[in-house]
Amino acid sequence: MARISWKEKKKNKEVLEEIGLKHTELLKTIKTRQLAYYGHIRRHQSLQKSIMEGKINGKRQRGRKRKSWLGNIEETTTRRINECCEVALNREEWRRTIASNLWQETEQR
C-alpha cells in the first residue's frame, strides 16, 4: 500500500496515519474480506474447503486451545458456524449478512 519496509521500524500507528486509515477502519476491512473469503470457499469445491472442514487426528497439545478461523467467523457474524455454512451457500444472502454485520458493528462504536 504505502511501500513501507519493515526495516524502517515504524510503529503501526505511524503507518496507519501515513496511509490515512484509522485502526477501526482497518479492522472493519479485514473482517469484511475474511467473511467474503469464507463465503467464496463455502460455495466452491476446493482443497481449501476440505482443509477448513477437516479434522486432524491425534492428541492436542497442552495449554489453551488456539483460536480457530471458523471461531473468528462465528464471533464476527454472531451466528453459529452451522448457520454460516447454510447462509454462505447463497451469495446474495451472505452479502446481506456481511453488510448487516458491518452496520451493527458501526452502530456499536
From TrEMBL:
The keyword Hydrolase applies. Residues 49-71 are annotated as: Disordered. It comes from the Eukaryota. GO terms for molecular function: endonuclease activity. Keywords: Endonuclease, Hydrolase, Nuclease. Residues 57-68 have a biased composition (Basic residues). This is Endonuclease-reverse transcriptase.
